[in-house]
Amino acid sequence: MARVVLFHKPWGVLPQFTDPEGRPTLADYIAIPGVYPAGRLDRDSEGLLVLTDDGRLNARLTQPQHKTSKTYWVQVEGEPDDAALHALREGVELKDGLTRPAQVERMDPPDIPERDPPVRFRRHIPTRWLALTLREGRNRQVRRMTAAVGHPTLRLVRYRVASWSLDGLARGEFRTLEMG
Questions:
Q1: Are 77 and 154 contacting, i.e. CB atoms less than 8 angstroms apart?
Q2: Sign, CA torsion 64/69/70/71
Q3: How far apart are CA 55 and CA 36, in angstroms?
Q4: Stretch 152-178: mean pLDDT, rounded?
Q5: What residues have CB less than 8 Å from 95, skipping those under 6 apart?
Q6: What residues act catalytically?
């Protein structure tokens, strides 16, 4: 029976169990032997991180050919116009090639706690939240995509991986599931 751990990773936590520099890691929150992250969520991102002891499940969640969807709540600088959203929906040319099309919609600010430390605030530059769903997972892809259309990411929260979401998980909490 496979174990799955759904963890609401706080900002600033490395998505690994050890760090020679002594920075916060998963070990500061999760004491379950034998589970490993299925994919990464950068230190400067927050939200849902799935861990498992099942290699096949890990591959299904992370390998691009499986096209597992992941939804992010993204606070960007400025107000993306329809052309910027269209570009994200069509695929954005990055240094490592064209991205797959993303689903993207404007959204109201999510009901989540402020980040610690807070996102920088500029009185004369508005921000906008987007719900962005990808079916691939390149290194820092969401940040690179929003920057490519002229709207740098200020805050990145992974809300959903496959059918699992952050719902019911407070920052720093985890829930374990038994998969048959």
A1: yes
A2: positive
A3: 9
A4: 96
A5: none
A6: 42
Does pTM surpass 0.85?
A: yes
Which of these, 2, 99, 125, lies nearest to 54 by C-alpha position?
2
Q: What is the pLDDT of residues 111-140, one digit of tens each?
A: 998 888 888 777 778 999 999 999 988 889
The Cβ of residue 119 has, within 10 Å, a number of other Cβ atoms equal to 13
Omega of the bond leading into 117 within 30 degrees of 0 (cis): yes
The span from the CA of 5 to the CA of 130, in Å, is: 26
Instruction: Read off the tokens for 15.
Output: 């998505």
Residue type, 3: R
Tokens representing 125? 């530059």
- Token pair, residue 29, equals 């929150």
Handedness of CA 47, 11, 128, 168 (dihedral sign): positive
Question: DSSP label at 147?
Answer: H
How does DSSP classify residue 38?
A: S
Euclidean distance between CA atoms 11 and 104, whole angstroms: 23
